[in-house]
Amino acid sequence: MDYKIDVTDSTTYLLEKFIRQSGKSAGSGAGIVKAPMPGLVIKLFVDEGMTVVPGEKLLIVEAMKMENVLKSTIAGKVVSLKVQEGSTVDKDSILIEIEPT
User: Of 8, 81, 86, 98, which cross-links 12 as Cys (Cβ 3.0–4.6 Å)?
Assistant: First the structure.
């Protein structure tokens, strides 16, 4: 029997996990966009009142010197921005609220 074993350090593991979750975490249910890990908001692509579609870029969060694009997983209207560019965020902080359409 053959087994595949990957050996990695904890930093690489966390980065890979974050990247895998980035697209999903942006639509964390009922239009609530949460931070998948602590970081710094470096770019917002949306404003309150804008309409978004699935896959549309919402913001970029820098974490561990990597820029991570969070995208919408739902269609809807941005009803609330809880952050601005330059904001520091904690894991699971609410970043944006989207009203599904």
Answer: 8
Q: Dump pLDDT digits (tens) for 58-79.
A: 999 999 889 999 999 899 999 9
Beta-strand ranges (E) seen in 2-75 are: 32-34, 39-44, 51-52, 57-63, 66-71
Range of the domain at 57: 29-100
Closest by CA position to 71, among listed 18, 7, 26, 38: 26
Q: Which residues contact 24 (CB under 8 A, 6 or more apart)?
A: 73
What span, in angstroms and rounded, lies between the C-alpha atoms of 11 and 76? Answer: 35
CATH number at residue 65: 2.40.50.100
Please state the domain count of the chain. Answer: 1
CA distances from 20 to 3, 14, 25, 46, 68 (A): 23, 10, 9, 23, 10
